[in-house]
From TrEMBL:
<dbReference type="InterPro" id="IPR036942">
    <property type="entry name" value="Beta-barrel_TonB_sf"/>
</dbReference>
<dbReference type="InterPro" id="IPR008969">
    <property type="entry name" value="CarboxyPept-like_regulatory"/>
</dbReference>
<dbReference type="Pfam" id="PF00593">
    <property type="entry name" value="TonB_dep_Rec_b-barrel"/>
</dbReference>
<keyword id="KW-0812">Transmembrane</keyword>
<dbReference type="InterPro" id="IPR037066">
    <property type="entry name" value="Plug_dom_sf"/>
</dbReference>
<keyword id="KW-0998">Cell outer membrane</keyword>
<keyword id="KW-0798">TonB box</keyword>
<dbReference type="InterPro" id="IPR023996">
    <property type="entry name" value="TonB-dep_OMP_SusC/RagA"/>
</dbReference>
<keyword id="KW-1134">Transmembrane beta strand</keyword>
<feature type="domain" description="TonB-dependent receptor-like beta-barrel">
    <location>
        <begin position="368"/>
        <end position="935"/>
    </location>
</feature>
<dbReference type="InterPro" id="IPR012910">
    <property type="entry name" value="Plug_dom"/>
</dbReference>
<dbReference type="InterPro" id="IPR023997">
    <property type="entry name" value="TonB-dep_OMP_SusC/RagA_CS"/>
</dbReference>
<feature type="signal peptide">
    <location>
        <begin position="1"/>
        <end position="25"/>
    </location>
</feature>
<keyword id="KW-0472">Membrane</keyword>
<feature type="domain" description="TonB-dependent receptor plug">
    <location>
        <begin position="119"/>
        <end position="228"/>
    </location>
</feature>
<keyword id="KW-0732">Signal</keyword>
<comment type="similarity">
    <text>Belongs to the TonB-dependent receptor family.</text>
</comment>
Amino acid sequence: MHSRTFTRPWLATLFFLTLAQFAFSQARTISGRVVDAQSGSSMAGVTVRVKEVSGVGTTTNAQGVFQLNVPAEAKTLIFSFVGYQNQEVPITGNEINVSLKPGEALQEVVVVGYGTQRAQDVSAAISSISNKDFNKGIVTNPMQQIQGKVAGLVITQPGGDPNQNVIIRLRGQTSITGGQTPLIVVDGVPLDDPSQIANIPPGDIESYDVLKDASATAIYGSRGANGVIIINTKKGRAGQTSVTYNGYVGLDWQAKYYDLLTADEWRTATKQLGNYQASLDKGANTNWQKAITQTAFSHAHNLMVSGGTDKFTYSAAGNYINQQGIVINSGKTEVGLRFNAQQKALDDKLTLNYGLLTTRTNRKYVDYSIFTYVFSTPPTYPVYNPDGSYFGYFDFEQQNPVAQQMLQLNRGNENLNIYSAGADYELLKGLKLGMLGSLSYFNKQTDFFQPTLPGVGNINNGAKYAENRNSKKGNIHIEYTRTWNNVHHFDFTGVYEYNDFEYDNFRAAGQQYLVEENQDNALQNGNTAFNQISSYKEEYKLISFLGRVTYNYKGKYYIDASFRRDGSSKFGVNNRWGNFPAVSAAWRISEEGFMRNISWINDLKLKIGYGVTGNQDAITPYATQLLVGSIGRYYNPVNPAYAYPQSYAPTQNANPDLKWEERHGFNVGANFSLFNDRLGGDVNVFNDKTKSLLYNYTVPTPPFYVNTILANVGTLTNKGVEIALNGTIIKGSKFTWTANGQITFIKTRVTSLSGTYAGYKLSTDNIPGGYAEGRGLSSNPITFLKVGYSPYVFYLPHWEGVDANGNQLFDSAGVKIPNYGNATFRYIDPAPKFNYGLGSTLNYGNWSLNFFFRGVYGQKIFNNTLLDVEFIKRLPGNNVTKEALTNGIQDAAVASDHWLENASYLRLDNVSLSYSFKQVKGIGSIDVYLTANNVFVITPYRGLDPEIRNADTNEAYIDANYGSDGYYPRTRSVVFGVNVSFK
């Protein structure tokens, strides 16, 4: 009885517990609506899935409504849509309404040339960098703001000269005789010369869009072979007036010095060698490297006012930069003004745009020959005489470099003015017709006067030079945009474009002036036998027709096709017009149904593109024509009054078949965002081929007038891989740690330097490049453009050490010989294996610490300076390094691979610590920062710095420190800056 009583209640309890478990384990229905957080409009096609259970999900309908049966263990729903941030929502009831926020990266607008696209819709290889990611510090050239930030883009500042142009290469070398710098476009207006980027105030720049592959750059046709860099300046926004100030002060100093002998070391060395000369010992102890340099002070200021209403917006900015050079009596100052505005009218159907940019830059140049005198002057010479005047001397390459740099007048003034205006009118819904016009004026004037220098006995001389580079540009464009059922998105752009370019220069020079105080302001008063005058002018036109169609289906499948036809007056009738097609496509795999359950992939897009671009920079406006010039005078006995009239003859053969060089590019890539947007990246693989390379080939005379002709016959290839990654390592409420990096592998090869023209064979085995320079060196080139090798391949004998007498030994088929003439020469590729950059930002509260590394692996540099100054034989009238006393080399300087050094490097480019005062009463926000630039460099290279002209013509991979061009030392700097935003 007792047992039966106990069992029944236990069974009843078990029954009800099972029933309860069954009831609670049943699926329940969750419903709701998804809207855009900004516009509040319904969002169709949003993916809704259960976080804890794979395979359970649905999508919202046209009204943004969803309904989903979820199991009991479901605790969280994940809402995702391309271009928006994923959102996780706890299940707390049967109805869930969500507002999705646009994703920052995918919603960014990218300028693609003659229009814009959302980042998520781009199918070509384009990289964008905004001002929050710019490099901070003393910026000599605006391009330094993105140095090392973009995969495939190599920006080289060869030294620390504030007046030196940067070298910009995008995806390798593109030409052997023409310009290789990408086209630079500022607010839709292409610069007439890429070097004018130095005149754009860095503080005015909002972002850069870098168009890398041919499918993106083909929209610029005959100017797009080197890539395109689009610069977007800061614009006004509707709302409260905004006043911002950005400024910094900084100090620069020379980062590294050569280990040259002191005066006492020089005396000891010459006495031990038995060639001490008392006449060279003036009793001084001068470090000539430090005598010509200084600690330089720089400051820059930018003040911008912007604002407006929903009908009118504006932005006005003033800039001032004052940058001393670390070399004495060098530097620059720059003043700039910028204004742009946008006006809407006629019920917002008409939009008017205005733009003005004007800058004036005053430059104080360096006479680069003074760097040679640093090595060719003994440290026993003083800088000044006891009375304070400059100590003077002269002997071949010996001259007081301080006196020369300080007493010379060597300056320039540059004025850049760009005016632009445009109008767009909406004829029908989605159909706009517009026009854009611009006027660009660039003027440069230089003054030079070298007085009679103390102790030198030189003939004073002076010169004035002026140049103008002006253009008129305009286009008429039409754009049609249409979307059907929020599924089909179509856009068409058509443009007619007209460009007129003019360039002229003038130079006058003279010598032997009695009144040196006039400097170059009375050039007619010198010895008339030495007066020189020259002038030049050219003009050409470029007319273009272009069209582009873009289409995407449901944000999954994209296609972009463009065609441009350029007509240039540079070419003959037969080749005046060129065609430049391009096509690219993309597939957003992450939007496919089979990807919905892969929660760790937020976005994944594959892309492929092909295009043809041109390069007309390699051709002057009159390269196709037969030119005649003066070649001297001849005797004419018929008229004694004009016994020696000027004679003329052809100076250039005509070639009406000349055409632009063409670059055919193929690109495949992928964009991805993973782990709830914690890791993102962009990968591209490209294969480009430049055809119809131009070079002056040798031809017979007759039938040709002169023995060379410019012709299109060569080819070269660029193949490479670009990888860019960004990620959030730690993401907390107060502390975040983000990192980004890029690495680029590029292999360039010269594949052909031969062909035919008019039945004649045109060919060359190689084209000489750079030369070793210095005392006692031969004039033979050491780098070449050679078929089958990368550009500027070295051709050098193999060094095997020295013998007992200090004679250098060279390899000749495995035999060591002290005879340079019989040595075995080898081709050595100096090109880097890869370039890379790595940055990281740590934020804690209002504090932020940012650092950026940049480097190169595998490059080789010919250390021309040490070749010349590591030889003890150069004493006593010169200085040498301490290494010269112990390296055992006793014979003359010889160019060999002994001086071709591994120049891989890792540079801590900048470190910046900043603090943000978010709300300051009566002001707004204040950000202050402290930045150090070029903090350290890790490299086996023994020169001053491994970053030299590694991408430039002629001197590529050759240290020019001891050459005629010299090398302005690289600097190290510390900067204190402030950004203030006023209410």
